[in-house]
Amino acid sequence: MGTYKIAVLPGDGIGPEVTTQALRVLERVGARFGHTFQTTQALVGAAAIEAEGDAISDATMALCQESDAILFGAVGGVSRYEGPNSKVQPERALFRLRKELELFANLRPVRPFKALLNASTLKPSILEGTDLLVVRELTGGIYFGKPSEIRQTPHGLEAIDTLLYSEGEIERIVRTAFELARGRTKKKVTSVDKANVLSSSRLWRRVAERVAADYPDITFEHLLVDACAMHLIRRPASFDVIVTENMFGDILTDEASMLAGSMGMLPSASLGTRQTAHGTFGLYEPIHGSAPDIAGQNKANPIASILSLAMLLRHSLSLEAEAQAVERAVEQVIDAGYRTEDLQEAGTTIVGTEEMGRLIAEAV
Amino acid sequence: MGTYKIAVLPGDGIGPEVTTQALRVLERVGARFGHTFQTTQALVGAAAIEAEGDAISDATMALCQESDAILFGAVGGVSRYEGPNSKVQPERALFRLRKELELFANLRPVRPFKALLNASTLKPSILEGTDLLVVRELTGGIYFGKPSEIRQTPHGLEAIDTLLYSEGEIERIVRTAFELARGRTKKKVTSVDKANVLSSSRLWRRVAERVAADYPDITFEHLLVDACAMHLIRRPASFDVIVTENMFGDILTDEASMLAGSMGMLPSASLGTRQTAHGTFGLYEPIHGSAPDIAGQNKANPIASILSLAMLLRHSLSLEAEAQAVERAVEQVIDAGYRTEDLQEAGTTIVGTEEMGRLIAEAV
Ligand SMILES: CC(C)[C@H](C(=O)O)[C@@H](O)C(=O)O
Ligand SMILES: CC(C)[C@H](C(=O)O)[C@@H](O)C(=O)O
């Protein structure tokens, strides 16, 4: 038993409503397992821009730094900050958190629930046996390289972005992927790059091969990102751990979310190097966005947020039994036929965000 | 009637065998419609590196320049040129052709044949009505930006790539997309970018909006690349023309190929600005690669190459009836139940590369 400090950043759109349900589940975990979770809420995204003048304030950054983990909702999708000329972007909150807290390893597991095999747009027979983990580099690459700007030239405007990786950045993320593969069944790492075009990918490949040599027990392969985008939906069950750079990881995980039936099912953990008293410091968030079109309508699927909470319990608080209890509760409620609107299917019972949260909390 | 000059570059792996079948179909078109097609073959890729010291020679470039169109097979996938330290890459042939011939507009249509709806890993109900065209920018972006290199720093190696776009480059590709949308049924353009992260995407969005204003008859929307990777397999039938930058187009089209059942079905056209006596100069190639694992085994699907030939007839030679005759021939043979190995299904007849080519040629 102990006290755990969690910073809660609900953000924009459906962020607050799904986070509320994750907190409801957390409360239930506390009661059942006898833990005290000290949660502190703060603003991020458009909400923070309006109230505090920036997408995330220094005070909120400090709060995060003093916590054991961060439970994050979603930011962005707010049209008045989306124009190509907008000065502050809600997404800045995410970039600042990821970069300043050195959350370089973004873990995005994709394991379709049996009861949801039919909910996907892919054939159930293709999904059978799918259990993969994308390890996405999160603090480097084209997200952070400079210059990144629009500039005037004699022939009109031009824009530039910079994709930059150091050996050290590549090495630590690839090593993380191999370590994670050791704890899994298939024991395989697929490193995804575009080595036939990018210099950064050629360095990536070189470093990945060096790291792979330290893990003779793990099957290792390279795959080009375009081929991977195809094989993910052609033979998803053949993958185990996929490790890749920031932008490729962003694209491939949104695609992979369809394997699980809905993006509303997929959690993520962003881990750094810092160890707290309880585990590895990290930020946990659904991979879905703020979905402004359904915000405030009690329609959003809170499961991605609840499964993110389970990852938080596991990785940052080292509460494995509690994490599993949450995951089992989700599976139970799904097995019992409850669905939010994103997973509509004949023979299921559609419930709202709140009701789904309540059902899962009760099942814990 | 007339004489048409076509440069034929079969390349590596399965490139030669699929191209041979396209040429067989071309011969049949010539006989049936009374045209003389003057074809000249040359080496590209690994084959050219070995025989001529570079992935494409100046003589071959000159041949291309003097032709009305190029029929291209595939390059790359040759392991001795794939190491991260390899000096000449077979892919250089493609980059040189694209860049020097200014083939900026890469058209990749995806329209699953009815008889193949079941061959996809996606559910047939999802595919119903899918008829999309990806217009990929092909001569800019991170494929060509400088610096692109691996360099020594005091803290070890680092690698850099540069994503660069000028207003002019964006404008011409977006305009191409809108023009093409005008000739289609759904009359819709989806511009795909990552404007919440990239400066180049913010410029892209600005220019796309300016161009869109000239086409009030076309529905227009922006979509983030990660969301697009998801929606492509979630609601493919909702797309019409998708316009995007070079790398995003590369990834999304490989993914989209699964909608058609197999990458072996998908043709592409790369068009430039130059007008020949007969139409728009262009390069035509399957979107699949050299597939070294099945090369020389009479297993490859020649349909992507044959459909690329149909695009060549249409866009570069302005032979629309001939193009349609080829497309109808392919559909007939598919409807008759013939498949290559990549499309194996109960109740179909598996044939080799040659036999498939012969059947289609006969059906023209
Ligand atoms: C909101 C956006 C900037 C972000 C990203 O691209 O990283 C999101 O898509 C994600 O995957 O977490
Ligand atoms: C071979 C490779 C360099 C090429 C590309 O990335 O453009 C291929 O994937 C394509 O899509 O034509």
Structure report:
2 copies of one chain form a homodimer. With 364 residues, the first copy, chain A, is of the alpha/beta class. Chain A has 2 domains: 214 residues, Isopropylmalate Dehydrogenase (3-Layer(aba) Sandwich), CATH 3.40.718.10; 141 residues, Isopropylmalate Dehydrogenase (3-Layer(aba) Sandwich). Chain A contains 12 helices and 14 strands. A 10-stranded mixed β-sheet of chain A has the order 2-1-3-12-11-4-5-10-8-9, sandwiched between helices. In chain A, strands 6-7 form a two-stranded antiparallel ribbon. In chain A, strands 13-14 form a two-stranded parallel sheet. In chain A, strand 1, helix 1 and strand 2 form a beta-alpha-beta unit. In chain A, helix 1 packs parallel to helix 12, helix 6 packs across helix 7 and helix 10 runs antiparallel to helix 11. The first copy, chain A, starts with a strand and ends with a helix. The mean pLDDT of chain A is 96. Chains A and B meet through strand 6, strand 7, helix 7, helix 8 and helix 9 of A and strand 6, strand 7, helix 7, helix 8 and helix 9 of B. Strand 7 of chain A pairs antiparallel with strand 7 of chain B, so a sheet runs across the interface. One 3-isopropylmalic acid sits at the interface of chains A and B.
